[in-house]
Records
---
Amino acid sequence: MTHAIESEGLAKRFGETVALAGVDLHVPTGSVLGLLGPNGAGKTTAVRIFATLLLPDAGRAQVGGFDVVADAHRVRSIIGLTGQYASVDEKLTGWENLVLLGRLLDLPRAEARCRARDLLAQFQLEEASGRAVATYSGGMRRRLDLAASLVGRPPILFLDEPTTGLDPRGRLELWALIRQLVSEGTTVLLTTQYLDEADQLADSIAVIDEGRLIARGSPEELKARLGAQSLLVRPARSEDIGATLSILKEVTGAEPQAEDSTVTAAVSDPGLLTAAVCRLEEAGITIAELELRRPTLDEVFLALTSRVPERTPGDHEEEGCP
Ligand SMILES: Nc1ncnc2c1ncn2[C@@H]1O[C@H](COP(=O)(O)OP(=O)(O)OP(=O)(O)O)[C@@H](O)[C@H]1O
Ligand SMILES: [Mg+2]
């Protein structure tokens, strides 16, 4: 079997709302697919169908070669799911949660305890293992949630926005854990609104918007699709931003944007960099920072959907929209 997860024409409505309008996805075994999209794009709906928590209206979906409707029971035996909202029991301790899950998965008592101990160690939760989850920080909860989805050693993992609400360090820690799982052969479907997260973790990315697939490819392919590079100029004096905007507009023919005292313009020809520098120098503008770079996924998203992805409250500054 080459695809651990696949769907064809997957569709789902909730009353008048079309959550999925015929989505085809293919995730090769042992790889990571980043399913990217703004709020309400249909990411969680797709994950819930793959995880047999929701029936599709049309289309088909297979996980590990099993149909999610006809063979739901077998699908459940080979997947782990970390939901968008923590699924562990707050009143129980971390240890109790994991042992309980092991018992629910029919592990013998000794094995359930052994598995819980191993996972708590792997996720650096040993010290907190005896405390009620209600006392855990957001990052600890997320780690426990991921650990909980791994109790049954699933070869296929669905992670629905696993790092939402985490601080940068918490995200890095969780990324490392996910990478480790992938290096051990786990297939992962990861949903995220963080474009840099998909860039960091995914072998391929599918972008959905309003229930439709609008782009698919490797992070590099998606960036290349814009066919342009971005030229960034930060003038040393903030009063030069207006003049920098006009010069970059004139040189690139694009509509430059100013943000955080930096002016950014899409350029189709890298040779325009020299022209821009000459014109800025002629105008007496001192350049504090200059960069020609490939577009970020944020910019790709903007180009694909003509809008900036919505952000959930609590997002961090460095994930700001273009
Ligand atoms: N149980 C439900 N009943 C009614 N509408 C729903 C239900 N679940 C999802 N929807 C709607 O379906 C659409 C897709 O929702 P979904 O949760 O799949 O989006 P999402 O991409 O996961 O968004 P987010 O980034 O906010 O988590 C939204 O318009 C949502 O309001
Ligand atoms: Mg969601």
---
Amino acid sequence: MKSIAIKEFGSADQLKELEIEKPSIKDDQVLIEVHAFSINPVDCKRRSGKMGGKLPMVLGGDVAGIVSEIGTNVTNVKPGDRVFANASKTYAEYARSRAEVTVKIPDKLSFVEAAAIPLAGQTAWEALIDKGQLRDNEKVLIHAGAGGVGSLAVQIAKHYKAYVIATASEKNKEFLTSLGVNHVIDYKKEDFEKVVSDVDLVIDPLGGKSQEKSFTVLKKGGRLVSLVQKPDETKLKELGIVGIIFSMTPTSKRLQKLADLLTSGKIKAIVSQTYPFTEEGVREAHEQSETGHTRGKIVIKVK
Ligand SMILES: NC(=O)c1ccc[n+]([C@@H]2O[C@H](COP(=O)([O-])OP(=O)(O)OC[C@H]3O[C@@H](n4cnc5c(N)ncnc54)[C@H](OP(=O)(O)O)[C@@H]3O)[C@@H](O)[C@H]2O)c1
């Protein structure tokens, strides 16, 4: 079957078409005919060699498609079902997923929209709810609110009745307001730490200076959840705040909750760009992701 893979680490030019074997499945696994997958920043980090790994490497972290085969122990989905899943090696015509993180796609969602959800959505949910312990009416600051994770995080936080502040550039102000964000801060013109205070929870997908300054806007006992950088323990103690970094662990419960919120229209998938499943398409998609200024998600349409 066709895949787009790398034989060497490096730039997006390393992404090449590679014929590989269709995956076989175990008792608790599902084989999915891939209709769409999304690009996640981690794909570009892996492609560049920053994270090591064996070559050749087929990238990918999520998928939307049609169940082609199921293992003997699988009961939650059946062949022919439209599903989305957290899975690896999804830059291919078929991908293998664990049944426990494979969930039916809400009827009204297209494959392209569905592919935007599993990795970014589970990350946003885990950051806000599981790690961040967000409670009703809390004040939350979501950095990079217009990004893949951010655009879902702001919607989930609004669903949980939070007062949501998000950072983004001017071009995303209206977009974030339309998602219900209460206060959008243009990070190019304003210093968020000067206009925000008494925050209960910060979601940090940026690290560096942005994380450092975020410590000062949190109230005592407030929480900072980072997707990218371990917060400084000494600073946390000094300020009396809680800080954690985490790596998303997918669960079926969370993916099902996301599916339910999509069905009821409480959240929506934001896909700003789609590309074809060709060497050129996937390369361009990686280059776009690496600008660091994509709105919502980039999705590759396979079928
Ligand atoms: N720990 C985990 O399990 C986990 C899971 C998923 C992702 N991540 C990581 O989290 C990070 C974010 O992922 P993502 O998919 O959301 O990335 P993304 O979609 O590429 O983020 C792009 C967004 O970042 C915004 N942005 C860039 N610089 C900014 C700044 N200085 N202040 C505010 N916003 C800024 C851009 O808005 P403008 O265009 O308006 O500038 C753009 O909308 C990545 O490093 C990714 O690898 C970690």
---
Amino acid sequence: MKSKIQLLVALFCLTIFSACKKDIEETVLAPSIKMANETAAINGKVNEAITLKANNTLGNEISQEWLVNTELKSNTGLLEFTPAKSGVYTIDYRATNSAGSYSFKYVLTVAVPEVPTTIASNVYVTTLFEFAPAAGQFMNEAGWGNQESGKSIEGKKATPGISLGAFGGYAVYGFDHTVINQPEIDDVIIYGNAIASLSEPGVVWVMQDENGNGKPDDIWYELAGSEVGKAGYIRDYSVTYTRPTPPTLSVSWKDIKGNTGIVRQSFHKYNHYPLWISADEFTRIGTLLPSNGIKGSISAPLAFGYADNTAGGTDKVDIANAINKHGNKVILKGIDFIKVQTGIMADLSILGELSTEVTGIADISLIK
Ligand SMILES: [Ca+2]
Ligand SMILES: [Ca+2]
Ligand SMILES: [Ca+2]
């Protein structure tokens, strides 16, 4: 009898306990989160990991997510994120369960990596990254037009320097330090061989090493010169050059608008198509400048802002004139790479095709 009563009591208690337990389970509490870092505006460095932590103070069941620029990066209370390049990132943390949600937003600012100037910094560009000329009278010729020519102005001024050929031909160089955009003054000087009657304007582009890898694999910004927006100024203009057969003939070209012409084989005996290019045609894309200042073999200088333009060959440019692909001004603290690109497609009669020459590129702030 005693054991029967005991069993009933036990059953009763178990039932009550289960009911109570069920009640407790059903009372879900909303996420209660304490962020380890409660400052919304944070700073970071390229290639350096940052760690952010959300502490779940109740330890209850929640689902969590961290989004960096809307991309899911973590489903725990912890975010480890390494920015691969400079910029402004938004980081959203969210915790949710059936009773509610909690969110916190960070704005992470990652500065552009900068190589500071030292006593050992070179005033000139020190590295040729790419020589990609168009067809031209100096191509394949020791002096102005082969791969070694491009290296001749590493760390110095040199004549001959480098000839970029017809429209779109370019060369990319790097400095051994970040060239700072000095307020209200020009920052870079590009030496060329222009004379009063022969200007061969090259468009100047600049780049920051946004990912800090020492390579020009970031974003190019055109330095706006005097011709921006004028009739004949065309961004994203392109010209395709075709290998002639036999190779000693003039090089024919066709532009993005369907215009055609030739880079005329001149008195220079070398082939005008760059022979190290294995493809039978290649395309150069860039900004086309107006050519209304050209009459026969006379090419008048443009007002400002281009390489191989001013008589005497000293063209200064200001980083403050940088514009993006939409033509809008961008503010750059400094630049690490520079590209000079022939900006006009023209045949200068007895002088052959218009082609930008460069005999040196220097950081004005380091010129003594
Ligand atoms: Ca400046
Ligand atoms: Ca880079
Ligand atoms: Ca020239």
---
Amino acid sequence: MDLPADLSTVLKPIEEARGLPNACYISEEYYQTEKQKVFFGGWAALAFISDAPNPGDVCPVDFLGMPLLLVRNKDDGLKVFQNVCRHRGMILVEEATHLRGPIRCPYHSWSYDYDGNLVRTPYVGGVGIDDHENICPKDLSLHEIRSHVWQGVVFVDVSGQAPAFNIAHKDLLGRWAEFDQPYHLGGAASRFDMTLDTNWKLAVENYCESYHLPWIHPELNEISPIDAHYHIEHDSYAGQGSRNYRQLIGENSKKFKDFEGLGDVWDGQSEYVALFPNVLLGVHRDHSFAMLLMPQGPEKTLERVALYYADKNIDVPENLDMLRENARIWQDVFNEDVGVVQGMQKGRHGMYFDGGKFSPVMDGPTHSFHKWVARTLMV
Ligand code: FES
Ligand SMILES: [Fe+2]
């Protein structure tokens, strides 16, 4: 499709800029363009490492309609494949499961190992004959999708053309280098999902800013007030930090273990960053979280949240109350945002809305995101 004509106004200095036009939030045609350029054209978040925790685990992911398969292989590495058999294009795996043998296609039983190699082709040369000179297994491996793990999240580059993840995101990796250490999911109590009637971009935009704190999160604003926040603005990520992070303290003054070797600055500081396009990350001395935004269409978004901890043995019954409490605190905060994120989506059907006017002081991170989207679409 032709992009909305006024996209260039998004790129102007914040004082003159307008936000992305309505079509970017409600048009099916625009959504298809965005899917190709924004989600399939470079690195995007796909899944959690905890979606396939053990060797032999396979987890299908519908990535904006593209069938992908997350596989934990025998070396404990994660790989992502197109979830499609090389024979007649059958979907290979329909549900997350633990496999003992190879990945077997349910149609004619062609089978692949966890590195995507075709290892069995029963009767392919006729009944009882499992090979044929025309069928060359090494040419028929599963199509591997380039992937990278960071912050407990599996990222993919469907295009295969993006710069290496460590290069593309070197600034954020540098900023949070201290958090580049093993992350451990706090079990089922540390995972929850929400489905919102909104475009995924509005979830990013709302996450980037602290402007709404006093009105949408009055209780959080008591602990971590708006004036203790600072903005984070960059070409490929944006968000906010707080200088007033207070750890959860359980019974008998119990606390979660800190990540190892953090500088003193993190004693009372936390940061919340949207890594474009679709993952919202938060880091604290004693836990981190990631929210994956999985678009289900222009006006529906699945939000998948996981909380991670430093302690390898975090997922034990004696920690359950605190794990539940920490997840509840975050779920309450995210629930408080639902009304405005869905309300902004409804607002995008107001035909005279012009993308909106940014506050030059408060909306810088949101503008950074809009500029990134506009630039990515205009390439
Ligand atoms: S489609 Fe998979 S084996 Fe035939
Ligand atoms: Fe919020």
